[in-house]
Each structure stands twice: as structure tokens, then as C-alpha cells.
Amino acid sequence: MIVFILQKLKIQDLDRIPGLYVNSENSSLYLTMMLDNKIVVGYKEIKLENSLNQKTVPDDCCWGIARVPPFTSNHSQSAIIVDDFKHLLVLAGHQSSHHIICLPHGVRKLPQELLPSLEYFNILILWFGNDQIAWNSARTFAKKLIENRCYFIRPTDDQPSPYLAFKLGLNIDKILKTADKMVHPSIIQFSTIRNEVYAELQNHDKTLGMKWTKFPALNKIIGGHRRGELTLLTGPTGSGKTTFISEYSLDLAEQGLPTLWGSFEIRNQRLAKIMLQQFAKEPVHLNLDLFDNLADQFEKLPLYFLTFHGPQPLNIVMDAVVNAVYVYDIGHVIIDNVQFMMGIGAKYDMGSERFWQQDSIIAEFRRFATYSNCHVTLVMHPRKEKDVEQLSISSIFGTAKATQEADNILIIQNKIMESLQIKKYLQVSKNRYSGNLGVMSLEFNKQSLSFSQQKT
Question: What is the crossing angle of helices 132-145 and 314-328, to 10°?
Fold first, then answer.
């Protein structure tokens, strides 16, 4: 694909891209990444024979941007922000008054260290791809970049990513003119959001949310994992809530969803050990010679962990969560679990004051999920129930506020068979998005600590 682009672009156009180099074997292109247009802090590499094989060096802490000055004398303080090397090449060869900026880590994250490099621009046009991560990253990045100067090219069939538009021979100037503001007044008319509604209708499957690769049955019931929602997970003691939600969240993180774990019940070392074994799909302690290679791969996942353990004040936790969303562009927060965060055995352990405390936590995470466009999953203990009874929505500890505020309620159920064997399944008891309810069988594999429905 890159060879195709190079054949179409004029040599003098490529010469105008600062920091663009070809290696001596003519097999790779290199693009330097600069901090504040002054200091080289890394580079992007792309293989000429396969443009899907791209990498940024250093992989996780490159805080620079690739910036192409405008080709005309009109020094308009506007820039098009893209997430891919080949998109920059396409737009660099297009006669435009905009600066072209390529982010170091695509739509995965927007490091705060490079924000000063973007302060020169009054207008920022975000032109990303047409997938769930790109959709959500555009909204998340806009909050960090100041929404009132951000515009978004909404992904539709006739205005795809820059490379696809170039390949299909579409009019790039016409697509750029469709850019909409990311933020609207408090009172709007339908005409203001018409294009956004059309984009969602045309991309209906993507609006259902990011799909789980390991739990296809869950996709069929609730559609996918959507930002801005609040999910509650409950189940009997020892039913595997932490183990399940670990794999559930790891599945999404492996697809690029930045995830923040707040494990108040077990320490991060134990949680990471569980997740690493699920990632490896085999007992790591029996294959220690593979640890370094596995750990190197695991470190590249967009996973972050709060260092809290046991009871913590709500304001301290929220301050850390809000900071993580800003710095690391978090799209999924897991709190495991609410009762341990509050402190079991504390002075509020009984009575209405404890219910008030839990309601405050639920309300704050509900507000945070909506405002930050971030999905929050809260693990909660159920009320004391008889062993023979199946749990229901009313089994969730506390007042009705938790179940009222939640968009999704997931319950791990233990069913005792006639053979006295315990059968587990996940019950979707609430789904505000579509209303679909149902159950998903959970077969536990002790070797991989997995509830996955895929073959390992």
C-alpha cells in the first residue's frame, strides 16, 4: 500500500516531509517524531512491502509528533490529526493549508507530554479510522485537547480514512469540509446532530460496542462493550467474580482498550499473576523459561493498576481515576469490589449510613462514566441468600440505587445439578441499551484460569 502511495505522490512532495528517510536497502521508511518541533524523541518505521507492519520507537514513551508544514504560504493555524503513517503520507501530498500531524501511538493513547506541541493550533481536525476504538478515542482525545477547537470527520462509507479516500479517488477537500465540531450548545436542533445520527445508523454494528473475542455469546445478548455505561457484576462468594472479570477485561485490553484496574480485595501482584496466566493460556509457573517473553508481550497491553488496597475514601479514589483517564485515555475502569473499597467491618458496616455511603459511590461512578465517556464495571457482593436460591437483581447488596443506575447487570449463578456437580453460568439481568436478556454458560479451565468459550 505504501508503494502505491509513493508511486502516486510527487518526489518534491515527499521532500517536503521533514524527517522522512528511506533505509539503504529501500525496504523501510522512517519518520522522526519531535517534541515541540525541536527535539527528536523517537521515530516511526513502516515496511514498504507491508504497511500494516508499523512500529513506534520507543514503543511506550515516545512523546513526539510527526508534523508536516503546509505547502502554501497561507500559514493557517489549523491541523489535521491522523493516527497512521500512511494517512500522513497521503495528506502530505495533498495541497492543503492545514498542518498534518501523526500521533506516536495511534488511537491507543495521547500522552500529555506532547500537548504543548499542539498548543499552536486554533483548529484541530481529528481524522481517524472507522472502528470502535477510533470512534471513542476521538471523543476522549478532544476532551484533552479542549473540545471547542476540535472537529471530527465522522466515519461513513463516503468519507473513510485518508488512505482509503486516496485509494478510492475520493475528494479529500470535500471530506474535510464535512468536519463537525465535537461539542455542541446545551440546546440544539436535529440539524446539528444529523450527520452524527447518519454515521451511527450506517455503522450500526459498531455502535453496539466493542466485541469480546472470547465470549461470543455475550456479544449476542448485550451487543458489545460500550463507553459511558455502568456495569454491575455480582455472584456468590467463591463463584469466580474476580477471575471472570479479569479475563473479560483482558479480552478488551488485548484489542487496544486502555483499562484501569482498582483491585481493593486482592493485591495487584496476585491479580497480575491471574491475568498473565489467562494471557498465556497455560500455567506460567510450570513454564518459567517462557516468563520473560510473555511478560514482554503483556507489558505492551494498555493495562494500568491503582495501588490502593482495602478501604479508601471516595474522593481519593476518584482523583486517581480521573487523572488516569486524562493521562492514559482510559476507556474501562474496574472496581473490585465496592464493599472492600468501603471497608467491610468498618463503623458503617451496618445500618442506613453504610447504604448512604454505597449510594454515594454508585452515584459518583455513574456521573463519571457519563461525563468521561468511560465504561465502569463495579464488582459487588450480593446480600446473604440461601444456598439453594438463585440470585436476582434484588440480591445486590444495598438500596435499589445501584440497580437503578446500572446500564448492565451481570450475575454469576451457581446451579447444583442432580449429580451434585456445580454448574456455572452468567446471567444478563439488565441491559438498558437493547433490553435483551439471557444466559451464557461458564466452563472453567483450571489450567488457563479461563471461562472462555474458545478452544485454548
Answer: 110
Question: Which CA distances in Å does 429 have to 218, 230, 235, 388, 411?
Answer: 12, 14, 12, 19, 7
Q: DSSP code of 260? A: E
What is the CA 360 to chain-centroid distance, rounded?
26
Instruction: Collect all residues with Cβ–Cβ distance below 8 Å to 295 and sequence separation of at least 6.
Output: 276
CB 32 within 8 A of CB 66: yes
Contact between 124 and 149 under an 8 Å Cβ cutoff? The reply is: yes
pTM for the whole structure: 0.77
Residue 436: name the closest of 246, 221, 195, 196 by CA.
221
In this predicted model, what pLDDT tens digit does every residue of 205-248 receive, in sequence order? 767 899 999 999 999 999 999 999 999 999 998 899 999 999 99
* 224 vs 191, residue with greater confidence: 224
List Cα–Cα distances, 272 to 139, 278, 280, 299, 303, in angstroms: 30, 10, 12, 11, 10
The average pLDDT across 174-190 equals 75
pLDDT surpasses 60 at 260: yes
Q: How does pLDDT run across 19-67, given as a tens digit for each residue?
A: 788 888 878 888 888 887 778 888 888 887 766 678 888 877 777 887 7
Provide the grid cell at 153. Answer: 470527520
126 touches 141 (CB < 8 A): yes
What band does 347 get if pLDDT is binned at 50, 70 and 90?
Answer: very low
pLDDT tops 50 at residue 348: no
Q: Is 119 helix (H, G, I), strand (E, B) or coil?
A: coil
Taking alpha carbons only, the member of 177, 107, 194 closest to residue 144 is: 107
Instruction: Give the 3-state secondary structure percentages of the chain, helix then strand then coil, rounded to 5.
Output: 35, 25, 40
The single residue listed with the C-alpha cell 454515594 is: 360
Instruction: Give start and end residues of each alpha helix (H) in 212-313.
Output: 216-222, 241-254, 268-280, 291-299
Strands 180-181 and 332-336: unpaired
Q: Would you call 314 helix, strand, or coil by DSSP?
A: helix
Local structure of 4: helix, strand or coil = helix
Distance CA 43, CA 57 (A): 5
Q: Which ranges constitute the DSSP H helices of 102-171?
A: 132-145, 162-167
